[in-house]
Amino acid sequence: MLTARELLDPLLGIVGIVLGAVVLRWLVHRLIARLTDGLAAGRVSSLLRPHRSGSPGTAERRAQRARTVGSLLRSVASFVIFGVAFVLVLSKLGINIAPIIASAGVVGVAVGFGAQNLIKDFLSGIFMMLEDQYGVGDVVDLGDATGTVEMVGLRITTVRDVNGTVWYVRNGTITAVGNSTQRFGVAVVDVPVGYSADVDQAIGIAGEAARQAVTRKPLADEVLGDVETLGAQDLTQAAITLRLTVKTKPGRQWAVRRALTADVKMALDTAGITAAA
Amino acid sequence: MLTARELLDPLLGIVGIVLGAVVLRWLVHRLIARLTDGLAAGRVSSLLRPHRSGSPGTAERRAQRARTVGSLLRSVASFVIFGVAFVLVLSKLGINIAPIIASAGVVGVAVGFGAQNLIKDFLSGIFMMLEDQYGVGDVVDLGDATGTVEMVGLRITTVRDVNGTVWYVRNGTITAVGNSTQRFGVAVVDVPVGYSADVDQAIGIAGEAARQAVTRKPLADEVLGDVETLGAQDLTQAAITLRLTVKTKPGRQWAVRRALTADVKMALDTAGITAAA
Amino acid sequence: MLTARELLDPLLGIVGIVLGAVVLRWLVHRLIARLTDGLAAGRVSSLLRPHRSGSPGTAERRAQRARTVGSLLRSVASFVIFGVAFVLVLSKLGINIAPIIASAGVVGVAVGFGAQNLIKDFLSGIFMMLEDQYGVGDVVDLGDATGTVEMVGLRITTVRDVNGTVWYVRNGTITAVGNSTQRFGVAVVDVPVGYSADVDQAIGIAGEAARQAVTRKPLADEVLGDVETLGAQDLTQAAITLRLTVKTKPGRQWAVRRALTADVKMALDTAGITAAA
Amino acid sequence: MLTARELLDPLLGIVGIVLGAVVLRWLVHRLIARLTDGLAAGRVSSLLRPHRSGSPGTAERRAQRARTVGSLLRSVASFVIFGVAFVLVLSKLGINIAPIIASAGVVGVAVGFGAQNLIKDFLSGIFMMLEDQYGVGDVVDLGDATGTVEMVGLRITTVRDVNGTVWYVRNGTITAVGNSTQRFGVAVVDVPVGYSADVDQAIGIAGEAARQAVTRKPLADEVLGDVETLGAQDLTQAAITLRLTVKTKPGRQWAVRRALTADVKMALDTAGITAAA
Amino acid sequence: MLTARELLDPLLGIVGIVLGAVVLRWLVHRLIARLTDGLAAGRVSSLLRPHRSGSPGTAERRAQRARTVGSLLRSVASFVIFGVAFVLVLSKLGINIAPIIASAGVVGVAVGFGAQNLIKDFLSGIFMMLEDQYGVGDVVDLGDATGTVEMVGLRITTVRDVNGTVWYVRNGTITAVGNSTQRFGVAVVDVPVGYSADVDQAIGIAGEAARQAVTRKPLADEVLGDVETLGAQDLTQAAITLRLTVKTKPGRQWAVRRALTADVKMALDTAGITAAA
Amino acid sequence: MLTARELLDPLLGIVGIVLGAVVLRWLVHRLIARLTDGLAAGRVSSLLRPHRSGSPGTAERRAQRARTVGSLLRSVASFVIFGVAFVLVLSKLGINIAPIIASAGVVGVAVGFGAQNLIKDFLSGIFMMLEDQYGVGDVVDLGDATGTVEMVGLRITTVRDVNGTVWYVRNGTITAVGNSTQRFGVAVVDVPVGYSADVDQAIGIAGEAARQAVTRKPLADEVLGDVETLGAQDLTQAAITLRLTVKTKPGRQWAVRRALTADVKMALDTAGITAAA
Amino acid sequence: MLTARELLDPLLGIVGIVLGAVVLRWLVHRLIARLTDGLAAGRVSSLLRPHRSGSPGTAERRAQRARTVGSLLRSVASFVIFGVAFVLVLSKLGINIAPIIASAGVVGVAVGFGAQNLIKDFLSGIFMMLEDQYGVGDVVDLGDATGTVEMVGLRITTVRDVNGTVWYVRNGTITAVGNSTQRFGVAVVDVPVGYSADVDQAIGIAGEAARQAVTRKPLADEVLGDVETLGAQDLTQAAITLRLTVKTKPGRQWAVRRALTADVKMALDTAGITAAA
C-alpha cells in the first residue's frame, strides 16, 4: 500500500517542477525581450557592430529583425525548458529515465551530424541580421549568386540575378558577402589601346574625355567625385590598358562605367589612337 | 517465491508505460497535424517564409506537401516513442538495459557518421518544401543539374535537362537553388561589334531594332516591359559588346534572347556595322 | 556454497533472454519481410517514390531488389539482436560487462570514423534501389564515370564507358545521377555558320533540312516528335551557332544528333552558307 | 585475513574468463574460416557480387585473397577478445578498471580521429578484394594513378604507369576504379577533316579504310567485332570530327586505335580530303 | 515532516554556492582584466608576438582591442560560472539534475557541430587582434576579398575593394592574410619587348629610364630605394619580359608601378625597341 | 584513527600496481621488439607487403627503420601504461579520480580534434616505412612536391626538387606516391609532325633513328630493351604526334627521352618531314 | 553538529591536494625543462630529425625556440593541473562536482570543434620549430604565400613576398614547406628556339655560352658547379625548348637564371638561331 506521503511527495515535486519551468521560461523570455529590444533600438554590443549603421530607414528594419530573431530564440528556449521539465516529471513518477536520456542523446548526436548545416544556416542568418550586412534591394555577391536581394530570411537569402533567376542561397554557405550598394560605388573604366600608342597622350585624352562626361547630364547626377586617371594598368605585347576610376552613387557604378567606356573610346578614336597594336 | 506484489508491480508499470506511450504518441501526432494543417493553409511562421507566395495552384501543392512532411514526422515520432517504451518495459521485467542502451548508442553513432548525408537530404527536402523553392515544371539550376523539375521528393529532386537526361539530385547536396520561372525573366542580349564601330550609333540601331521586334508578334506576347539599352558592356582590342535587356514572361527569356539576338544582328548588318575589328 | 536459487535464477534468466532474442528476431524479420514484400509489389511509400515507375520489366527488377535489400537488413538485425543478447547472458553469469560495453563503444567509434564511407555506400545503394534510379543497360552519368550500367550493387555500381573501360563506382560518392534513357531523349544539334550569314535564311534552311531528314528512314524510326528550330543560340565575332532540337527514343539521341548535324551541314553547304566568318 | 573464498572466487573467475576468451576466440576464428572458405570457393553473398566473375585463373586468386582477408580478421578478433579478457581479469583482481576503460576510450577516440584513413584503406581493400575489381596485370585508372597493376594489397595498390613510375595508391582514396581489361575494349578513332569536306563521302571513305584494316593482320587478331562508323561526332567552324569504333581484345584498344587512326588518315589523304578548313 | 536541519542545510548550501560563484566570477574577471591590461600596454607573451609592433598610433588601437577581447571573455566566463551555479542550486533543492546535464550535453554537442564556424570566427578574430595583423585603412588580401580594411570585428572583417564593394569576411575563413601596407611596398615593373631585341641594351635603357623617373617628382616622394634591374624574367618565342623593382612607401607600390611602366615603355619606344617579335 | 589495515591495504595495492605496470611495460616492449626484429629481418606480414623487396642495401635500411618505428611504439606504450598506473595509485590514495578521468577525456577529445593531422602523419609514416615505398635518393612524386628524397622521417619526408628547393612534406597529406626509380623507367618520346606527312614513312624513319641511337654510346648503357614504335598517338588538324617508348635504367628515362627526341627530330628533318602542317 | 573529524578531514584532504598539485607541477616543469634543454643542445630524438642540421648560427636559434616551446608547454601543464586540483578541492568541500565536470565536458567538446584550427596551428608550429624547417631570412613557399620569412611564430609564420606584401600564414594550413635556401639552389634555364633549328648545334652554342658566362664575374661567385646541358626538354610544332642547369649558392638561383637566359639568348642570336619556327 502506498502511504499518503508516497503519493503526495511526487505530486508536490511535479507541481514544483512545472511551476519552476514556467517561471524560468518567463525569465528567459524576458531576457530575450530585453536583448531584442536593445537590438531594435540599435544598442548592439560593440562586439557585433562591424559597421557604422547610419542610413535612414534602418530603424524599422532593425526592429523587424529583432522581432524575428527574438521569436526564434523564444521557441528554442521554450522547447528546451519544457522538454527537461517533462523528463523531470517522469522521473518523479518513478519512471527510469536513463533510456529516455540515452535515446535523446543518440537522437541528438545522430541528428546533430545531419542537422549541422541547418544550425549553421540559422546561426549565420542571426548574425547577418544582427550585423545588418544587407537588406532588401541591395546588390550583393553571395558567392553562389550575385544580384539584388529580394528577401532576407533566417535560413536562406533570396537574390534575383541579372537574368531574372531567383536564387535561394543557404546563409550557412556564404563565407563572404560583397555589398555593392553601401554609401558609394567606384566605376573602374579599363580601355585598351594599341602597344604603339603614346601612353601619356592617351592617358591625357582619356582623362579629359571622362572628366567632361561626368560634368554633363546624366552622369553628373550619378558621380560623387572627380575622375582619377590611374594610368597604364597593364602592358602586354599587344596592348596598353588605361584605367580611370570615379566614385558614384551606390548601385550606379555599372551604368557609369558603361557610359564612360563609350565616351573614352570615342575620344580616343577621334584622336586617332586605335586599338591596333 | 515471488510475492504478488513482486509480480503485480512490474505488470502495472508495463501497462502504465504502454498507455503513456500511446497517449504521448497521440499528442505528438496531434501536434504534427496542427503544424502541417497550418502549412497546408499557408500559415507558415515568418521565420520560414522567405518569399511572398501568391501564384495560383500553390494551395493544392502546399496541402500535398504538408501531408508528405507530416507523414515523415509521424513515422519518426512513433519509432522513437515506441522504442523508448520498449526499453522501459524490458527494464521493468528486470532486464539489465545498460548493454541495450550502449549498443543503441554505438549503432547510433556509427550510423550517425554514415547516415548524416541521408539526414541532410531529408532535412533539406523538408525545408525546401516548407519554403516552396520550386515545383514541378519550374526551370531550376541545382548546381549538379539544370533543367525542368519533374518531381520534388523529400530525399531527391528529379530534373530533366536540355538533352533529355533525367537527373536525380540529392537535396542535401544543393547549396543554392536558381529558379528561372518566378514571376518574370530577363532576356540579356549581348551583341559584339568590331572595335572600329561608332559606339553611340551602334547602340542606337541595336536598341531601335530590339524595340521594334518586341512590338511585333510573337515577341509582343512574351515580353513584360520595355527594352533597356545598357550600352557598351565590354571593350577589348577586338570588339565592343553591346548589351540590351528586356523583362519577359517566366521561362520565355531564352526564346526572347535568341530572337532579339538575330534581329539586332541583322539590323546592324543592314547599317553596315560589322563584327570585323 | 551456492544455493539452488543462486544457480537457477541466472539459468532461467539466460533461457528467457535467448528466447526473447529469438522471438524479437523473428518479429523484426517479419517486419522486414512485410516491408520488402511491399517494395516488391511496388507499394513504396510516397516519401520515397520520386518518379512514376511504369516501364515494363520493372516488376521483376523490383522483386529482386526487394530481396537484396531485405537480406541485408535481416543480417544486420540478427547481428545486433544476438550481440546484445550475448552480452546480457554474460551479465547474468556474473561477468562485469562494463569493459565489454566500453570496448564495444571504443571499437564502434573508431570503426565508425573509418567505416562511414562503407555505411554511406550501402545506404546510398539501398535508396537508389528503392527509388529505382537506374537499371542494367541504362546509360547514366554518375560523375566519376559515364556509360552503360553493367551491374547495380548495394555498395558499388558497375558502368562500362565508351572506351570499353569498366568503372566500379562507390554508391556513396554519387551526388547526382543523370539517366539518359528514361522515356525519351533530346538530340541537340548545334551548327556554326559564319558571322556574315543571313540568320533567318540559315535558320530556315537548317530547319527544313532537319525536318526532311527525320521523315526519312532510318531517322524516322528514332525520333518521337517534330524538329524545333530554336534559332541563334550564340553569337560571337566569328560565328553564329544555330540550334535545333528533336525528341528521340531513349538512348538514340546521340545517333540522331550526329546524323542531323551532317544533314544540316550539307544543306547549308548546298545553299552556299559557309562557316567562314 | 582473506578467507579461502575471498582467494578462491577471483581465481575461479579468472580461470573462467580465460577459458571463455579462448573458446570465444576459437568460435570466432571458425566463423571467419567458414566465411573465407566460402569466399575462396566463390560463394560470395549476392550483396557483394557486383560482377559475374568467370575469367580463368581467378579461382586461385580468390583463394589467396580469402586467406589474406581471413588473416587480418583473425588478428583483429584475437586482439579485441584478449584485450577485454585482460581487463576483466584485472577487475577480478580488485583493480579499479574505470581509469583503464577511460584511458582506452580516450586513446580510442584520439586515435580514431587520426586513424580513420587507415581503417578506410583497409576496409576499402577488403571490399575491393571481395568484389574482385582488379588483379595483377590489369590496366586500371585509380584516379591518382593510371597504369598496370603490380600488386594488390589490403592497404595500398601498386600501379606502374606509362613512364615506368610505380604508384603506391592508398585504397581508401580511390572513389572509382576504371578497369580497361575486362572481357573487351573499344578503340575509338576520332579523325578531323576540314569543314569544307563532304561529310557523307568522308564517312564512307573512313569506314571503308577501317573495315579493310581490321581484316588484315595484325589487326585481325586483335579486334572482336565490326567497325561502327558513328559519323560526325563534332562540328566546329574549322573541322568535322569523324568517329569510328571497334571492339577489341582487352588491353589492345590503344594499339588498334593508333593503327586505325593512321590507316584512316592515309585513306582520306589519298581521296584528297584534307584537314585544311 | 522536514526537520530544521533538512530545511537549513540546503539553504546554507545554496547561499554558499551563490557566494562562491560571485567570488569566482570576480576572480576570473580580475584575471581577464590583468591579461587585457597587459595587452593594452603591449606586453603580449612572446608566444603570440609574431611581429615587432612599432608603428605610431598602435597604442590606442591596442587598448581598444584589449577592451573588446576582455568584454567577450568576461561575458563567456560569467555565463559559464552562473550556469554551473544554477545547476548546483537546483541539485541542492533535491532536483534530479541528470536530465539537465544530459540535455545540456545534447544541446552542447548538437550546437557544437553547427556552431563551430561561429567559434572559429571569434577565436580567429581574437588572435588576429592580439597579433595585430591589420588595422583600419590597411590594404589587405583576405582570400575572399582584397581591398582597404573598413572595420575589424571579432567575428567579421569589413573590406572595401577596388569597385567600392564592401565585403564582410568571416574571420574564421581567412587562412592567410596579405597586408600590403607594412613598412614598405615593392613596385614590380614587367615590360615585354620583342624576342629579336638586344637584351642587354633593352635592360640598360629600361633601367636608366626608371632610375631617372624615380628622381623626379612625384615619384621621388614615393620611392624608398634604388631601382633594381633584375633582367630577363621570362623568355618565350614571342617576347622577353624585363623586370625592374623599386621599394616604395607602403600602399604606393601600385601607383609607382603604373608610372614606371609608362616611363620605361616610352623610353624603349624612343630607342626603337618594340614589342613586335 | 586509521587502523593498520587501512594504512597497509592501499600501500600494498600501490606496490602491486607499480609492479604490474613495470611488468606489463616489459611485456609490451618485448612484443614490440619481436615485431620490429621481424621487420628488420624482412618478415613483414603478407598483409603489409605490397611489393617484392629485393634490391640490395635494403636490409640495413629495413633494420634502421625497424628501430625507428620500435622506438616510437615503445614511447607511446610506456606513456599510456604509466599514466594509467599513476591514476590507479591516486585512486588507492583515496583521491576522487572522476575529475581526473573527465579532464583527461576532455583534453583527449579537444586535442584529438586538433592533433588528428599529427597522428595521421605518424601513422602514414609508419606504414610507408613498413611498406618501403621509397628511400633516400629515389625520385618520387608526392603530390605536393616532386624530386629526389633527401630524408625519410616518421612525420615528414624531405624532397629536393629540380630547382634545388627542399620540400618538407607531411606524410599524412600524401595520398599516392609515385616512385620513378624502381627496377626500370620508360622513356616516352612524343614527336609532332605536320598533318600532311606520310604517317607510315614518318613512323619508320622515327623508329629507325631511335633504334640506331640506342645502340650507340652513351644511350646504349642506359636503355634496357628495344625501342617500341607505338605509332600515331594523336591526330589533330595541325599535327600527327608520333610516339616511341624504350625501357631504361631507373632514373635515366628523362635523359634518354631528351636524347631520343633530338635524334628523332633530326632524322625527320633530314628526310624532309617537317612540323609545318 | 559537525565533529572535529568532519571538519578536519576535508581540510587535510585539501592541503594534500594542493601540495600534490604543486609537486606534480614542479615535476612536469622539470620534465619539460629537460626536454627543451635537450632540444636547445640539438639532442632531438631521431624520430623528429628529418634533416642533418649543420648550418652555423642554428645553435642560438635552437635555444630560443626551445625556450618558446617550453614556455607554451609549461603554461598548458599548469593550467590543467591546477584546474583538476581546484575541482578536487571543491569535491572535498562537499560540492557535487558532476555538473562542473559535465559543463567542462560540454564546453570542452563545443570549443574542441571550433578550436581545432587553433590547436592544429600550435601543434604544427611546435613541430616546425623542432624540425627546424625554416628560419628568418629563408625564402620559402608555404602554399598560401611565397617569399622571405620575416618571423617564425608558434601559431603563424610571417612572410614578405616579391611585392612587399607581408603574409600572415597559419601554421596549421601549411601542408608542404618548400625552402629554396638550403645548402644550394639550381638555376634552370629554358630557352626556346624555332622548330627548324639544328638541335645539336643549338645545344652546343647554348651550353658554351652558359659555360663561359659562369666563369666570368659576377656569376662566377654565385655558381657552385658546372653547367649541365640537359638538351631538348620539350618539342612542339613551333619550338624546341633547350634546358641547361647549374648549381648556385642558396637564394641566388633566380639571379643566375635571369643572367644565363640573357647570355644564352644572345649567343643564339649571334649564331643566327632564332625563335621563329
UniProtKB/TrEMBL annotation, chains A, B, C, D, E, F, G:
UniProt membrane topology term: Multi-pass membrane protein
Keyword Transmembrane helix assigned: yes
Domain of life according to the entry: Bacteria
Keywords, sorted A to Z: Cell membrane, Membrane, Transmembrane, Transmembrane helix
Domain (Mechanosensitive ion channel MscS C-terminal): residue spans on this chain: 188-273
Alphabetized Gene3D superfamilies for the sequence: 1.10.287.1260, 2.30.30.60, 3.30.70.100
Cellular compartment(s): Cell membrane
One Pfam family in the UniProt entry: MS_channel_3rd
Transmembrane segments: 12-28, 71-91, 97-119
Record domain Mechanosensitive ion channel MscS: where: 117-180
One GO MF term attached to the UniProt entry: mechanosensitive monoatomic ion channel activity
Protein name in UniProt: Mechanosensitive ion channel protein MscS
